[in-house]
């Protein structure tokens, strides 16, 4: 392109009613002829037409000029390099004036169209003549009295016998309805609805009866369970009472058996043990003080005449026999558990060694040693140790001096 002309300047001219080879020039400022003012860009209505008698038409009032056909080439459509310049339109306010002009033209055209539409007469509407068609349709329709369901209502013969109206429709009728003589679909539907409602009511009543029966059965089962539990509790209490009575009886029997066993044991002990003399008088006891003893008395004295037999209290072995100083003649009987029995102040000794049994005569009562009269001095020394009170020991072994 040879120069940087404005796009508006390069736009092709638009043919507008001027004939071949003519065009209306829409150049900058619309300054062709007297159609537009070229200086201020304002529209001049008085200059729109060249003279009052000239023919009106597009392009009137604008200069026409001969134009040549423009064929774009590669160079002409090549983009312009560098800074783009747009030619400033003359007047400077053409764009704004053109917008105002366009709005005014649109408003004027719209108002003119509305005014012309208001003044125009109504358009005639033609309809085909259907009179003969209506007559033909009417002639083909049945009489009102012959219509099913409403014939009796429309019949003019009010005094004659009225026949039963036929149902409007038999749609929905089942074989069962037909067998029952029902010919009206509405009545059949009503009957089915009523039957369904009755069935639902019967089902609800049956459910209520079933629920009541179940509740009664549950109440009876609960009552039976309570009674069974109460009976079980009574049986349990009775069983516990019987068990307690049995335990008490067993305890009493056990105590009786223990007493019996103790008595039997005492009897056996009594048979196994015996008092040292058969006839006696208890005189000095264990622990008693006196002037004739260097210390408290260490045994139990059985006073008896001289020569009274002295028996072995229990079976054992005679380990010592002879003179023992202040004890006089003494025999020591050692039992199987190691307890030593001292028989003192004897007048004579019958057995001086060896084993003896319960009740064997081993000596005789005397008054030897430190005494004031004939008697048997008995000492009990467990394990051969210090002496203890002979009386509890004798009673422990079933003897009561």
From TrEMBL:
InterPro entries in the cross-refs: Cell_wall_metabolism_enzyme (IPR050570), Dup_hybrid_motif (IPR011055), M23ase_b-sheet_dom (IPR016047)
Region (Disordered) location: 1-66, 145-184
Coiled-coil positions: 194-267
Molecular-function annotations in GO: metalloendopeptidase activity
Any Pfam family matching the protein: Peptidase_M23
Keywords for the protein's UniProt record, in alphabetical order: Coiled coil
Protein's name according to its UniProt entry: M23 family metallopeptidase
Species this protein is from: Streptomyces malaysiensis subsp. samsunensis
Domain M23ase beta-sheet core residue range list: 296-390
PANTHER family per UniProt: MUREIN HYDROLASE ACTIVATOR ENVC, PEPTIDASE-RELATED
């Amino acid at each position: 392109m040879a120069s940087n002309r404005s796009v508006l300047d390069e736009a092709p001219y638009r043919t507008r009613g001027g004939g071949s080879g003519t065009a209306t020039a829409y150049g900058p400022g619309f300054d062709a002829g007297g159609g537009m003012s070229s200086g201020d860009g304002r529209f001049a209505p008085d200059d729109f037409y060249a003279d009052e008698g000239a023919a009106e038409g597009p392009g009137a009032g604008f200069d026409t000029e001969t134009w040549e056909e423009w064929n774009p080439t590669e160079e002409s459509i090549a983009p312009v390099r560098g800074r783009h310049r747009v030619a400033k339109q003359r007047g400077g306010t053409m764009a704004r004036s053109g917008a105002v002009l366009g709005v005014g033209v649109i408003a004027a055209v719209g108002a003119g169209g509305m005014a012309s539409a208001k003044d125009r007469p109504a358009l005639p509407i033609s309809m085909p003549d259907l009179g003969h068609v209506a007559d033909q349709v009417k002639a083909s329709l049945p009489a009102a009295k012959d219509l099913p369901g409403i014939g009796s209502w429309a019949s003019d013969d009010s005094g004659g016998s009225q026949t039963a109206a036929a149902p409007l429709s038999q749609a929905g009728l089942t074989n069962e309805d037909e067998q029952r003589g029902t010919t009206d679909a509405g009545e059949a539907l009503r009957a089915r609805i009523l039957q369904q409602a009755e069935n639902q009511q019967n089902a609800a009543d049956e459910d209520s009866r079933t629920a009541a029966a179940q509740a009664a059965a549950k109440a009876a089962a609960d009552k039976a369970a309570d009674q069974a539990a109460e009976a079980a509790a009574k049986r349990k209490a009775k069983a516990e009472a019987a068990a307690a009575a049995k335990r008490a009886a067993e305890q009493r029997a056990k105590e009786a058996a223990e007493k019996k066993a103790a008595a039997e044991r005492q009897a056996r002990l009594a048979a196994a043990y015996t008092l040292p003399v058969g006839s006696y008088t208890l005189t000095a006891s264990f622990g008693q003080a006196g002037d004739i003893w260097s210390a408290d008395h260490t045994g139990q004295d059985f006073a008896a005449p001289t020569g009274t037999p002295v028996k072995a209290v229990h079976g054992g072995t005679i380990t010592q026999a002879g003179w023992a100083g202040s004890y006089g003649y003494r025999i020591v009987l050692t039992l199987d558990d190691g307890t030593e029995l001292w028989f003192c102040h004897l007048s004579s000794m019958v057995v001086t060694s060896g084993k003896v049994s319960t009740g064997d005569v081993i000596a005789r009562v005397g008054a030897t040693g430190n005494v004031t009269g004939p008697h048997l001095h008995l000492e009990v020394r467990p394990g051969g140790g210090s002496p203890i009170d002979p009386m509890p020991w004798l009673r422990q072994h079933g003897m009561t001096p």
